[in-house]
Amino acid sequence: MQEPTRILLIEDEPSVTAFLCAALERSGYRVEPAHSGAEGIERLASGNFGGVISDIRMPGNVNGADVQSWIQRHRPDMCKRLILISGDTANLETQELLARCGAPFIEKPFRVQHLLSIVEKTFGKP
Question: Where do runs of H (alpha helix) occur along the chain?
């Protein structure tokens, strides 16, 4: 039997993390949460994932743009397996990142079915 797709979820809001983990795990994915961009990069550097879901706007020194840039430099194989999420689409930096990287984007708030549809298209079925 094939292992479920392992997803790294980088999200700083605990309630959003819990919600996304539950929804993805119910659908058959294996989820490992990281609560900051820096923690996400540490996990990416030391592990293999079938995909990454990252919030764009996070407190601290490392945000979603930094995660995307790190993936592009150090794990280019993951560039096509990155989904970005944010509730701040009016921000110019967010708009520039989305235009530059071309990763699928999900705007908060979103419906679970929309998330799962994008996840399945990007990472494949669990």
Answer: 14-26, 37-46, 64-74, 92-101, 112-123
Residue closest to 39 by CA, chosen among 13, 72, 62, 73: 62
Report the chain's mean pLDDT, rounded to a whole number. Answer: 94
CB atoms within 10 A of CB 5: 21
- Structure-block tokens of residue 119: 């996840």
Of 36-45, 67-76, 96-105, the one with minimum mean pLDDT is 96-105
What does the alpha-carbon distance between residue 27 and residue 4 come to, in Å, rounded to a whole number? Answer: 10
| Domain assignment of residue 116, yes or no | no
Structural domain contains residue 1: no
Question: Is the pTM here over 0.85, yes or no?
Answer: yes
Taking CA atoms, 15 is separated from 1, 10, 80, in Å, by 32, 13, 27
CATH number, position 89: 3.40.50.2300
Backbone angles phi and psi of 103, in degrees to 5: -70, 150
Domain annotation covers residue 126: no
Mean predicted confidence (pLDDT) in 41-63 = 96
